[in-house]
Specification:
Trna Endonuclease, Chain: A, domain 1, Translation Initiation Factor IF3, 3 domains, 5-stranded mixed sheet, 10 helices, Restrct_endonuc-II-like, nucleic acid binding, tRNA_endonuc-like_dom_sf
Length: 327
Amino acid sequence: MIDEDISKIAETLSKEEFKLNNDERIINALERIATSLEIIAHNKIHNTKLKNNANPISSNNVFNSINNDSQYIENFLMKKGVTIKFVPEINSEINDVLYSLASFMGNNYSKISSVYKAIKSRLSSGESVKIDMKNFTQEEISYSCQFCHNLYELTFLDYYKYLKSPKYQIILAPNRIPLVINFLTGHWLESYVVYEIKKLINYFNIKKEVSFLLNPQICLPNGDDFELDILFSVDDNIYWIESKTSDYHHYVEKYSKVAKILNSENLHPYLLLTEVPQQTCNKLTNLFGMKVLNIENFSEFLFRELEQYKTHIIPEEAYNVENNENE
């Protein structure tokens, strides 16, 4: 009898212990269910915005003040034995609104990178993600929330919620329309580069001939197909900029080989990376003979590079007014 009672007590205690061990998992599961239900209910309203605003085209396109005749660049490539197979039209979806978003991302990348990478990791599934920001600095929290707010306003996020102290969490779910996937998986970085170039061309009031050739699909002299990111010229100088938001290891050597094929005193090749410290970039530059830049230093570098072409600097007040009109 005593043995039987002990057995029952042990069984009861075991069940209680199992219950206690599973409390946290149950709570977490309930939180996930509640979040999912909130997202589903919220999307019924928010998806109406998506239909109306998925392709907001601004009348002040970033290229309006730039001569986009790329003949000089194309002639240079042909002289190097390169065949231009296809040049896509400028993407009308990447308008001033998205250029402004790309500029925000590029100029504040170190502050938003954790949230950006969390969003990017959910683009294939569209699932919600909870981001714990307890270890973020106040600046990182502020910029991350601003970033998510901007994405949400543009319907790039299906759902966004910020939980203040003591939780300090962001809960979000990305929108999976092609525009969003294309932009956030990497095209934002190209857009950032183009936007910064255009901004400085206006700032320095450059009167030299300026042109762009974006994403041309080419055939190299050895028959290999290749696609370049950004080519732009100022006067006789051509700048070639490749950009990578993730794994760069398989590309550096390829870019280096293409740079050797295109080698000229008028060609300036660069590789822009987001996840690599400048010290490592310097080592890659020395190893592959192609200037490698970290995103944190890109704006300053570009400023110094284009300053040599300045006619005169537009007064700061006029510059700010112009930017405000384009945003």
